[in-house]
Design goal:
Order of helices and strands: EEEH
Radius of gyration: 14 Å
Largest sheet: 3 strands, antiparallel
Distance between the termini: 25 Å
Structural class: mainly beta
């Protein structure tokens, strides 16, 4: 079973030079010998992504979330 969660992350975006919030889609991954839940960032959405010079691959907010 694939467990997905959406998290919201807010920080100062270097493209807009203002505080922005992105929605991050995370997938649960299983790590052996631990009872904690672990998630991997899969994708994100941002209202400025179509005009952003960083693009989807190099988004500083997604990378630092």
């Amino acid at each position: 079973m694939c467990e997905l969660k959406t998290k919201h992350f807010k920080a100062v975006c270097p493209y807009t030079n203002s505080e922005m919030e992105i929605s991050i889609l995370c997938q649960r991954i299983h790590k052996t010998q631990t009872l904690n839940k672990h998630y991997k960032k899969m994708d994100f959405s941002c209202p400025k992504i179509s005009e952003c010079t960083y693009g989807k691959r190099n988004c500083p907010l997604f990378q630092s979330a």
